[in-house]
Amino acid sequence: MVHYKSGHFTTRSAENSYQSKLMAKQDKLIVKGTEIIFFKREQEDYISLTDIAKIRDTENPSQIISLWMRTYSTIEYLGLWEMLNNPNFKPHIYEGFKNESARPHFWMSAQKWINETNAIGITSKSGRYGGGTFAHSDIAFKFAAWISAEFELYLVTEFKRLKIEEQKAIGWTAKRELAKINYRIHTDAIKHNLIPPELTPQQISCVYANEADTLNVALFGITAKEWRDQNPDMKGNIRDYATINELICLSNMENINAVLINDEVSQNGRLIKLNQIAIQQMRVLQENTDRKYLN
């Protein structure tokens, strides 16, 4: 049987103090009698390779991880994953490791891979409790398959079930959200907050990491990370808690943003325009909601 112990996800940050604070909030899975720790980093699941490796060797799990990492196929997979997901990855270092992995005496550790390639798919945390080597779920499932095909199937099955429970915990459904809107429009204070605020000069001058955050700032006034920092105990992300009207507006903004990008409008210019559109559309949507409710 596979069981799940409820708790909190956590996120790793570059700052050690922030990392220690959040890494304390870890979840645990019990898969075929083995306890597997995992946490959340930037909305992605990171699973303990150390715990998975204990299936093979409870005393020296780091050696099991290194045995897996020294193979050509593993180095190739890790490198490809990083190139797809990590703009700061060092591919020239990876190519060197890939060539060396064909040699019989090649050896690789998680720490060496992280430090020399600037990898993000694998991370390491010191500490007697909750420490060890963690990897993105894509990589962790690959490692689990190398350990045991049966264990991998149990682990993947459990995570699928976990995602379903996570969505239930968020409690987002269209009917529920519509009911919340119908209740909120009767309160002037909350109704006022449904209209996005105009951006400050500081917000406009910022360079946002991705287009998703450009839209988030234009509509909600904050980035995804800022929302997570303000709501550390809430699961999901800022868009999971958006209203129906906000989701409609967001969908329209995504299309408009694509057009503005094709027209080579700068990010600052697009941000100002998108914020103006968000304010205008939310006012229209709110007025329509009020009209229907009065009728």
Description:
This protein has 295 residues and is of the alpha+beta class. The protein has two domains: 2-170, no CATH class; 174-294, no CATH class. It is 59% helix and 11% strand. Strands 1-2-3-4-6-5 form a six-stranded antiparallel beta sheet. The longest helix is centred in the C-terminal third of the chain and has 28 residues, at 267-294. The relative contact order is 0.09.
Concise account of the structure shown:
The chain is an alpha+beta fold and 295 residues long.
Q: What's the SSE blueprint?
A:
Elements: E1 2-5, H1 16-23, E2 27-31, E3 34-41, E4 44-48, H2 49-53, H3 61-69, H4 72-85, H5 91-100, H6 110-117, E5 122-125, E6 132-136, H7 137-147, H8 149-170, H9 174-184, H10 188-193, H11 201-205, H12 211-220, H13 224-230, H14 244-262, H15 267-294
Antiparallel strand pairs: 1-2, 2-3, 3-4, 4-6, 5-6
Helix pairs in contact: 4-5, 7-8, 12-15, 14-15
Question: Which class best fits the helix and strand makeup?
Answer: alpha+beta
Number of helices: 15
Distance N terminus to C terminus?
Answer: 54 Å
Number of domains: 2
Computed CA radius of gyration, to the nearest angstrom: 23 Å
Mass-distribution shape = elongated
- What is the spatial order of strands in the main beta sheet? 1-2-3-4-6-5
Main sheet record: 6 strands, antiparallel
Q: Which percent bin holds the helix content?
A: 55-70%
Share in β-strands: 5-15%
Quaternary structure annotation: single chain
Task: Give the uncertain stretches in residue-range form.
Answer: 1-24, 182-194
Mean pLDDT reading: 79
Give the ordered list of helices and strands: EHEEEHHHHHEEHHHHHHHHH
Number of E-state strands: 6
